[in-house]
Amino acid sequence: MTIGSIILIILGVFALIGIGTKAIQDFNVPVLGLVLALATIVGLNFVTPFVFNNFVFSIGTGILFFATFALWLFRGNFNNKILCLVTILILSALTFGATRLAYVFGNKTWSSVNFYYALMIGFLSFISTRNAKYGFIASVLTIMIATLLTQINRVIDLNEAYSTAIVSGAFSIVMYSTVSALMPKKPSRMAYYYEMGRMKDR
User: Fold this and answer.
1) What local confidence, expressed as pLDDT, does residue 144 receive?
2) 58's torsion region: left (phi>0), alpha (psi -120 to 50) or beta?
3) Sign (positive/negative) of CA torsion 28, 71, 137, 129?
4) Mean pLDDT of 99-110
């Protein structure tokens, strides 16, 4: 979980110093509130994980996934929510299918949801949404669902999805911020098509 926590700290610092302003605008939340939420997730993950029968999770991990789901459920317009949900379901199915195929052929590296999958999901989420918030939501929830599916018939450890989900979500945000910064400022065909297919709540 160390990698995920480090990335959240870096994202919090970037938000405080004003890097990624356009991405933060998509989330439509106060910067201070966002930073405090990230700090809470990181801090509470140092608490001993809870174990309920065959289900294991840390409080910080639970808050990450619950907050991401709540962000999808309560913020944004209905059409974008549905499109984001469809993206999550498709990417989850493809990722789970890929891990099972790898498992059948005895490939241990690709039979679990690893950082390679995280980067690919982050990229595909960005391509599908072209929005920092929805890209992050799609990435994080896809990793969570796919990871839980691979744990069927064994101990369900939500913490296993923590770092990979953060890597995926952060990569989607970085891709969005980079492409948005490189996009021509003046009206152009490229900028038109980029904005036309973008999920926007306002």
Assistant:
1) 96
2) beta
3) negative
4) 92
Sequence-separated (6 or more) residues with CB below 8 Å from residue 165: 4, 64, 65, 118, 139, 140, 143, 144, 147
Q: What is the pLDDT of residues 7-16, one digit of tens each?
A: 999 999 988 8
Q: Max CA-CA distance within the chain?
A: 58
Residue 113 lies in a domain: yes
- Reduced to 3 states (helix: H, G, I; strand: E, B; else coil), residue 156 is strand
Domain-located, residue 201: no
Structure tokens at 67: 């907050």
Cβ-based neighbours of 164, under 8 Å, separated by 6 or more: 4, 113, 114, 115, 117, 118, 143, 147
- Amino acid of residue 101: L
Question: Which residue, among 154, 140, 174, 133, has the nearest Cα to 61 in the 3D structure?
Answer: 140
Structural domain contains residue 202: no
Number of domains in the chain: 1
Rounded CA-CA distance 169/202 in Å is: 22
In three-state secondary structure terms, 157 is: strand
Q: Are 195 and 180 in contact, with CB atoms under 8 Å apart?
A: no
